[in-house]
Amino acid sequence: MKPMDIREFLDLCPAHALGLLDGEDLARFQSAFVSATPEMLAAYSQAALMAANLSLAAQEAPLSPDVLDKLMARVQGDAEPRSTAAPAAKRTVAGTAAGKTRIAWIMPFRIAATAAAGFAIVTLVLLAYSASLRSGMGRIQAAYSESRVRIRALEDSLSQQTAMLEVLKSSNMQMVVMNGQAADPAGYGKIIWDPIHKKAILHISNLPAQPSDKDYQLWVIRDKKPMDAGVFQVKGNREGGELYKIDQLVESDRSRINAFAITLEPKGGLPQPSGKMYLLGSI
Amino acid sequence: MTLPPEIPILMERIAKRDSRALRDLYGRFSRALYNVIFSIVKRKEDAEEILCEIFHQVWERAPSYDISKGSVYTWLLTMARNRAIDRIRSKGYRQGNAQSQQEVEELQGFNREDQLDQVVLSERADLVKSALERISPEQRLVLETAYFEGRTQTEIAASLNLPLGTVKSRVRDGMKALQSLLKDRL
Questions:
Q1: Beta-carbon count within 10 A of A116 CB
Q2: Domain contains A58
Q3: Domain count of the fold of chain B
Q4: What is the domain range of residue A46?
Q5: What total of structural domains would you count in chain A?
Q6: Contact flag A68-B143 (C-beta cutoff 8 Å)
Q7: Is the pTM of this model over 0.80?
C-alpha cells in the first residue's frame, strides 16, 4: 500500500471528516493519521469543525412538542408529580371561606360563597382528573415509544439474519477459526466469509461483555497491517455465542489477508489497534 | 451573539439526575439535531424517535461523560447522524468506515474549543446556509449528498454518474471554499 504524503492527506481531510472515504483511500488515510504531524492534525481539526457546521444547513423541519413530553415521561416515568393544581384550589377554598366569615350576615352572599366553594371543589376534582389523564397519557406514549424501538430492533434482526443466510448459501464461503488470547483464553470465534461479495459473518462466543465506554473492534490483517473492519458490542451471552453481519470487507483477495483479530478499544473504535487482543485467527 | 447557558454546568446537573437540566439542554440543541435527523431519514416518526433516543442516551450516559473531551453538540450531532444513517440503511452492524473512526470521543477530541457549544446555533446556521449558497451548485450538491445521505464518495460518484476523481475534487474544493467564506465570520 502506497504511503500517503502530507499534500494528499490535507486534500483528503474534508472527505474523511464527512465520512466519505472508503476502500484504499480510507486505509491509506488511517495509516497516515497514526503518524500525523501537528500541521496535519490541525488541518483535520478544521475539516471536522467545518463538517459539523454543515449540520446547520439542514432544512428546517417542524419539531413536535410531544417529543419533549415523551422524553420527560421516559426519564421520569411515573415519578413526575403533577399536583400544582391542588394547592391553588385549596387557596381558593380557603380564601372563599375567609370571605364568608366576614360577610356571614348577608344571606345572598353566603349562597354565592357556597356556590363558589362548590365550584372550587369541582375545579379541584377536574384538575386532579386532568393531571391523572396527562400522567396516564405520558405512560402510554412512553410505552408506545418503547414498542416502536422493539419493533425496529426485531426488523433489524430479521434483516441481519436474512443477509447472513445469503453468505451461508454462497458457493464461495470460507471459514477462519479465531482462538482466545491471553486477555480471555476461553474466548472463541469464527469468520464465515464470502470473498467474492466481500461479505462475512462473525460468530463470537465466550467473550465477556465490554465496559460501557468500550467496544470490541474487528481487524483484518492485510499485508501484515491491521485494517479496521468495524466495531460491535457483545451482550455477555458467553455460552450460546452471538452473530454479527459484516457487510463489506476491504479485501476480496484471500492471498493478501494474513489474519483476523479482535481487540477491545475505546467506544467507536480507533484507526489502529491499541487495546488488548481477545481473539486471533490466522489464515 | 448571545451566550448560551453553560453547557458543562448543564451536563453536571444532568449527571446528578436533574431533569430540568436535560430539558434545558434539549431546548438548546433539539431543533438543530432534529433538522439533521429529519434531513436524513425524511420520516417524522423516525426522526422524533431518534431524537428522543439520543437525549435519553444523554440522560443515561451523563454520569460517565467527560466534559473535558470537548463539544457536547458534536457528541450529540455524531450520535444523531450515525443513528439516522443506520436507520436508513437498516443494518445492525456499523461499518469500519470514516464515520466510525471519528465517532463520539475521537471527533470530540478535534473540537476541543467547544465552538459549537458557545454560540447560538440558529445564528450560525444562517451564516452556513448563506455560505453554501455562494459555492458552486455542483459542489453544494456533492456536499449535501455526502452529509445528509451518509454515502461514501464511491457511492456518490455512482449515484450522480460522475467520475470518482470529480467527486473527490468537488468535496475538497467545496469544503475549502466554505472554510474560506466562513473563516472570519464564525
A1: 18
A2: no
A3: 2
A4: 6-53
A5: 3
A6: no
A7: no
B55 touches chain A (CB under 8 A): yes
A181 vs A260: CA distance, rounded Å: 13
The span from the CA of A160 to the CA of A243, in Å, is: 9
**Does the residue B176 lie in any domain?**
yes
In 3D, which of A201, A194, A190, A253 has the Cα closest to residue A223?
A: A253
Q: Which residue has the cell 474544493?
A: B173
Q: Of the residues B53, B79, B109, which one is the last residue of a structural domain?
A: B109
Closest to B38 (Cβ–Cβ): which among A61, A217, A268? A61
Give tens-digit pLDDT for A231-253.
888 876 555 567 777 765 666 67
Q: What is the domain range of residue B154?
A: 121-182
Q: Which three cell numbers stand for residue B147?
A: 452529509
Look at residue A61 and tell me if it is in a domain.
no
B172: which chain A residues are within 8 Å (Cβ-Cβ)? Answer: 11-12, 14-15
Indicate whether B114 belongs to any domain. Answer: no
Cβ within 8 Å, pair B179-A46: yes
Is B159 a member of any domain?
yes
My answer on whether A158 and A179 are in the same domain is no
B104/A66 Cβ within 8 A: no
User: Percent of chain A having pLDDT more than 90?
Assistant: 7
The ipTM (two decimal places) reads 0.76
Q: Over the stretch A110-128, which tens digit does the pLDDT of each residue have? A: 677 777 877 777 777 787 7
- Asked if residue A218 lies in contact with residue A232, where contact means CB atoms within 8 angstroms, the answer is yes
pLDDT digits (tens, 9 = 90+) for A11-47: 888 888 888 887 888 888 888 887 788 888 888 888 8
